[in-house]
Amino acid sequence: MSNEATLHSQQEVMHGAHDHHDHEHHHEDSFISKYVFSMDHKMIAKQFLITGIVWAIIGAFFSVLFRLQLGFPDATFPWLESILGHWAKGGRISAEAYYALVTMHGTILVFFVLTAGLSGTFSNLLIPLQVGARDMASPFMNCLSYWFFFLASLVMMASLFVQTGPASGGWTMYPPLSALGDASIGSKIGVDLWLTSMALFVVSQLLGGLNYISTLLNMRTKGMAMTKMPLTIWSFFFTAVLGVLSFPVLLSGFILLLMDRHAGTSFYLSDIFIAGKALANEGGSAILYQHLFWFLGHPEVYIIILPAMGMVSEVLAVSSRKPIFGYLAMIGSLFAICILAFLVWAHHMFVTGLNPFLGAFFVLLTLLIAVPSAIKVFNWITTIWKGNINFTPASLFSIGFVSTFISGGLTGIWLGNSSIDIHLHDTMFVIAHFHIVMGVSAFFGMFAGIYHWFPKMYGRFMNNTIGYIHFWVTMIGAYLIFWPMHYEGMAGMPRRYYDVSGWASFKQFGGLNEFITIVVILVFAVQLLFVFNFFYSIFKGRKMTNQNPWNATTLEWTTPIHAGHGNWPGEIPEVYRWAYDYSKDGRDFIPQTEPIGPNESAH
Amino acid sequence: MDTAVTAKKKWWAGGYSPFNVSYGKLMMWYFLMSDAFTFGALLIAYGTIRFSSPSWPDPNEVFKSFPGMGHANLPLMFVSLMTFILIMSSVTMVLAVHAGHMRDKKAVAKWLMWTIVGGIAFLSCQAWEWTHLFHEGAWWGRNPFANVDGTQASTNFTNFFFTITGFHGLHVTSGVILNIVILANVLKGTYEHRGHYEMVEKVGLYWHFVDLVWVFVFTCFYLL
Question: Looking at CA atoms only, how far is residue A290 from chain B in angstroms?
């Protein structure tokens, strides 16, 4: 079906019995159809983004709370009792509350912020705009995708307020702990709500992912060959494929877990004692859940990082006024990462009783990921090499991304070795590794995307000064927070522990832990400054006067400043060249819509 | 638009679908791949647990009843009938899709009708089998059947059986509902007005997929 036909049928859904439409004819949208149940991909992107921001504030605030416990295990903070009630009696977070906070921090950040908030926002915003489509293939499914995410959010939010608290067995929700309500207070209704919310989340991801894939395969404008697409689109493509193929496996795992909780089955349970009493469950395997979980869990980290990689590639090329270095190698490495993503899951399970012989293969495949990752890193560095870089907040965050991706990625090579992992698993070293390589990096990619495409979203600019403050404090803060954790981890300091001050060997880190906590608070405050900047700029930011403020080649900047539903007022522009003609033949940039001239050099 | 259709048409160059399919069909294919992973995960989980168990009940002993036949020993007869019904419903679905290509509204309605009947018949058979097993004492968390070597079996035989056939049954149910919706649209003339019966093809893809999954479920639980 052509793009025109799609938009027509979509408008019929919205407005009922109109027979004929013209794109330039604007409808009076009601508040509900414009801002709430919107079917415009640009509005849905903003919905994902703002919901993601709300979740990010909550999730990050949780980390501040449990960092208080880790940094100041003996101190009391009376204000904690006023916000957490009996979870923080006497101003000290209880062990149960600590585990709940850690679990929710992981769940919220991994799924609700860095999956839905990141790829949900930018796949929606950029796929139709950059491939030259009027909207997603199915705007209705797109709308549903957001509202399933919203429902998932509501259920997860509700779980924070039930009497026994939210799920608290860690964001991986390993059985048997999560399967047995009697095992811990955090395994009661909180886990049911968690599983329900995540099932809704999987539905949302599926609806979104199917849409992203079919839009960018089927609805590219004339001339937009796959190899002419910006790297953002390639990264969203692989992200969506990863999601569509790995989330269902997680869903299967959850179905079995829910059965174990409520139908008396023993899929994951065998030989268990609770409070000295033997349970009847027999024949199941807790490791089975881990396999099912990590079959999603590992692709999930690429679902988080690939969109960031795509946006960073785009922003770096635009801001250094140079074509991306190794465009095809970039696509090839994305593809390689996408394939390998499905073949390395058991490196999360080296010490859980996995056959060491099997482990050897997972080590090999895991270390192979270093190859495409290194290709990408060298290509980014070569792209900005000798470039005439505009140090906008977006480009700073992109460069920051490359930095954190390198330093976090290198420790991945350590952890990917099953023998080193015996020492390092479940220590703060792991925390340091994945927070830098996928937490901070993905956030940097997201910030780069927000600063770069904010004008496209709202027709205004974000404040640059606050942007610079935001970048430098976050960049330096992130390293100050996570770098010391490597040392703690190498010394054997375990993650997830409520209080390590009882061990003589970890007592030496008391001061370091205090320091980390103080930096966490500082960095959190700066993120609030960013949020202020974001919302303030929506209404009061400097207005965009030029359709193409960054002098970029891609299609989204050929739309009007305030593009209506349908994106282009007239015909969709045709594309003649790739997205990276910067500094070519003496010209600063050549838009994709410009035909190739007779004497033009090849790129 | 793309008037100059030549043999050298560049399918991937933008402006049209590289696979020459509508976005809806493309989505359906990707959805089916996704759903294949859901079932794949469940069946692999089943295999994992089964292979790590010392022994397992014999399907010929468990599934040997037939409605109205009392205690006659008819191993796998009933499930063979169920499978036959489901496969026949796939045949009628093929005929419905074919009739759609011919723009033969009456034939589409007729074959869709038979597909729905087949689906409902399959679900009824499944309902009978589940009830029968339930009365024999089998359910989630309860397994009356001994292992083939005579030892007591864990409950995971029934756990997996009810979970996976139930999940498949849920897919058949949603397939039947989709078929009914599409049939209603056919009768209303929606697709005649639209000029093509692609929706029939799309639910057809889903229906064949559900059948194909049954072949695997059938193999794993009844034959192996």
Answer: 11
